[in-house]
Design brief:
Helix content: under 10%
Number of helices: 0
Largest sheet: 4 strands, antiparallel
Number of strands: 20
Shape: elongated
Structural class: mainly beta
Radius of gyration: 25 Å
Strand content: over 45%
């Protein structure tokens, strides 16, 4: 280093910082019989808003299970997609409700793509609720030739879901049925949400693959050991999301 009058001049390096993106924010005003996100407003009260969820792909519309009362501060956004939509004010005299929508970077992991909590998994010990499976427990899987072989559970997951989360009610013509997230992978490289009535899947034709509101707080998945990661849920062969 060069010296000046007996002193060393030390140059300090300051690491450059990347500015954090500012989330996009907007205020949205809705009235009775208007929809914000998947929520349809039915009644505006002095301190809350009554309505129900209308998933775009649900036919017919969901029943009372989808009804909900929103209070100031309630968020109807999809957190796993980086969307917040909070009810921030109510104008009772003007019969309007204001939502503040903020769109930011989605969190790591994205939206849930797993199974409903009532799924039963085929294991050498019999059917076991997916909620009760633990690492190291036995489970049936397949090898690369499609033959059923025993394995053990290597991973499990429980993913919280927003109240707007939709799942597919998958029904096969041999009587098997399952409630599963649209993004869950099939054994042939597709997603459950891609399947439609009439498709052939897992040795049966699909009777229905309608999307409905889930109505629970979390979805679940497992990863068996072995060559494929496949397992049976309610007798339907699926791939795992946990590879």
């Amino acid at each position: 280093m060069a010296g000046v009058a007996g002193y060393f001049i030390v140059s300090q390096w300051t690491p450059s910082s990347t500015p954090t993106p500012t989330p996009n924010s907007e205020e949205i005003i809705r009235k009775v019989n208007e929809q914000e996100g998947s929520f349809l407003i039915q009644k505006i009260n002095s301190d809350n808003v009554d309505g129900f969820w209308i998933p775009s792909n649900t036919i017919p519309p969901i029943g009372p299970k989808g009804s909900q009362t929103l209070h100031i501060g309630d968020d109807i956004g999809v957190a796993c997609a980086g969307i917040s939509e909070k009810l921030t004010s109510i104008d009772f005299s003007g019969q309007s409700a204001t939502f503040t929508k903020i769109v930011s970077e989605p969190p790591l992991g994205g939206c849930p793509i797993c199974l409903a909590g009532n799924a039963l998994i085929n294991t050498p010990s019999g059917l076991v609720s997916i909620k009760d499976l633990r690492v190291g427990m036995p489970i049936w899987t397949t090898d690369k030739l499609g033959r059923r072989v025993p394995g053990v559970v290597q991973k499990t997951s429980k993913v919280p879901v927003p109240p707007t989360h939709q799942i597919v009610h998958l029904v096969l013509d041999d009587g098997r049925e399952l409630f599963v997230s649209p993004g869950h992978p099939t054994i042939n490289g597709r997603s459950i949400g891609d399947l439609i009535a009439g498709d052939f899947y897992n040795d049966a034709h699909i009777v229905t693959a309608k999307r409905i509101v889930y109505g629970d707080t979390a979805t679940y998945d497992v990863l068996p050991s072995g060559e494929t990661g496949f397992y049976w849920a309610n007798g339907i062969l699926l791939d795992s999301t946990l590879h």
